[in-house]
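Appendix B: complex inputs.
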Amino acid sequence: MNHIDEATIHAWLDSAVDATQSREIEAHVAECSTCASAVAEARGFVAASSRILNALDDVPAGVTPKRAPSLPQTAPRKRQWRAAPWVTGIAAALMLAVGVTTWNRRAVEKEMRSVPASAVASQPVESLPPAVVVAPQRDASTAAPVSAPAAAPEEKRLRRDAAPKSKSRAQLADAQPRSVGAAAGAPTRERSARGVVGGAGVAVSRDQKVENVASAAPSALVAPRPTADMAKLIPTPAEQRAYLPTDIEELSGCYRTGETRPRGVAVPLGEALPDKAALRRRANAAAPAPAQAEYAGARPPAMMRLDTARHPLGYAVRSATSDSVIGSWRQINGDTARVDLLAAGQFTFARKDRIACPDR
Amino acid sequence: MTDVERLFRTYHDHLVRYLTRRLGDRDWAEEVAQETFVRALRQGELQNERAWLFAVATNLVRDEARKDARRRRHLELLREEAKAESAVEQPITDLERAQERALARRAIDALTERDREALLMREEGLDYNEIAEALELSLASVGTTLSRARRRLVEAYEQLREAGSGKREAR
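Resulting structure:
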């Protein structure tokens, strides 16, 4: 047998030769020192090239979300959610400050209009229900000074939220080692298992990772994106359906509303709030049957169907018996869905409570 | 689990790594991988799915890469070099890693397209039959291609490293 050529040695090392040939090569290599050293060299090349290729993987890991197809649906909504609490917080503080001062003034004016305080209590129809009037008056003394400090922490939190974002953007822009060190104060900074390359590996939370990607594109010296071909990369609705996140499919189906109806005793609109004792009596009443009818909002259906069709606020909720859309639902996590029927209230369903849909 | 889902779960990570190594850009690699799976969806039944996926991904890369490969590669190199040079006070491991990556990138770019693709596919576990099918090669030439690719890659890497260390010492 002649010496074995390099290609065959590589094929042999890659287990790409049949058993007979493999035995022949083995026998030959045991005899021939030239081929033995050729095999050793080839082994070296296999290992070294593997190592070199591994070095190529040293890009910041975890920057790009793993399941790309589901990203466009979940990412923007998540961000809206993050914004919501402080926006509403500040808005609420402002409204409280403004509302309380005007309300307080009105109450004072009313009192000055010669009606004795005791008479107000005895004329509940004329004035606001006593329970409601008392509350803002008590709050009025504290609300105004309180609202300012309450807003301050909000603002601070806002600034803190913004800080890591701008930091990571700066890092992406200049990729200076200094800025990596400067970011040491950022909360729960993580490094990828392989370590950080440049500054782009600094990640604070999953959401911010997504933002990093968004801000990285223009600022970092990433090579230009193919724009002309982008359109064909966007999946069609049919393709989107095929890529539906499994959780959405597994959460969809029919649920009963019975157990999840808003708790507490409903009071018809326009009626004064009963006192606590009366509330307790009502709640403990043996026959709570009319409670649903009394509920001030629209009545939710006894059963609803969570559909996989898209809805502006998530996915569509339909009546279990007809096809009409009655609200929206979205996924809280793999096991929980939140339904919003607007006037008829919000419901949280666990996947285990899913029931078979009735025939339509 | 649908067939596409199974395909996605089985091959997505391999395909993205293959493409990232090939392109040097993770986001771009994700896009191409996604397009590949979209096409698999349209295709329906696949004979040899792994070879098919890698072949389609490779062709997509070739189509796009022809247009701006040169520019991309140049920018990539500039970025790596700028990073490596500015990183004087960087922890030594990070610096070394960045340099190693830049060297690896230049070494893999020194290969011919076919050698590079065959080697990267082999690294993702494709066997000789699959590589032959994906790259439209004869089975016999896969061994030749791979042995050449490995030798050239290692040699190019060694040369670049020597040139690099010579440059640093000369300063």
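The two ends of chain B are 60 Å apart (CA to CA).
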